[in-house]
Each structure stands twice: as structure tokens, then as C-alpha cells.
């Protein structure tokens, strides 16, 4: 076993394996969830909500300017 020459090498190997498992698990999870359609984003609804919020901010700003 020339590869594991010291306990620190063993710990670094185990840590690397754990990091790789988590990394590939996250990638696989993202691909599966996207394929199932769980992470679909309704951009039209988001745009409509943002437009309403922006309009409300504009009206509030105009109201504040008139009061000053």
C-alpha cells in the first residue's frame, strides 16, 4: 500500500471521496428534479408580480415627492 503512506493521506483520500459523492449526488439530483419538472419557473407570473411592485414603488415615490 504505497498510496497510503500516512494517516493524513488516508484522511485526505476519505475526505476527497466524500466530497466527490456529495458533488455528483447534487448534480444527479439537479438533473433528475429538472427532468421531472419540479423546478419549472413561471417567468410570466414573476414578471407580472415585479411589474405590480415596480408600479406601486413609482406611485409611492410620486406621492412622497408631492408631499415635499
Structural features, described:
The protein is mostly helical and 68 residues long. 81% of the residues lie in helices and 0% in strands. The chain is elongated. The mean pLDDT is 87. It comes from Aneurinibacillus thermoaerophilus. This is Tumour necrosis factor receptor superfamily member 19. Keywords: Membrane, Transmembrane, Transmembrane helix.
Topology:
Layout: H1 7-36, H2 43-67
Would you summarize the structure shown here?
It comes from Aneurinibacillus thermoaerophilus. Helix content is 81%, strand content 0%.
Helices and strands, in order, run as HH
- Oligomer status: single chain
Shape: elongated
- Any low-confidence stretches, pLDDT <50, length ≥5? none
Class based on secondary structure composition and strand pairing: mainly alpha
**Alpha carbon gap, first and last residue:** 80 Å
Keywords: Membrane, Transmembrane, Transmembrane helix
Transmembrane segments: 12-32
Protein name: Tumour necrosis factor receptor superfamily member 19
Which keywords apply here?
about 70 residues; mainly alpha; transmembrane; Tumour necrosis factor receptor superfamily member 19; transmembrane helix; membrane
Amino acid at each position: 500500500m504505497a498510496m497510503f503512506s500516512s494517516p493524513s493521506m488516508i484522511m485526505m483520500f476519505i475526505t476527497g471521496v466524500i466530497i466527490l459523492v456529495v458533488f455528483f449526488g447534487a448534480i444527479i439530483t439537479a438533473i433528475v428534479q429538472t427532468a421531472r419538472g419540479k423546478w419549472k419557473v413561471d417567468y410570466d407570473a414573476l414578471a407580472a408580480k415585479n411589474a405590480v411592485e415596480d408600479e406601486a414603488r413609482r406611485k409611492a415615490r410620486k406621492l412622497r415627492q408631492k408631499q415635499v
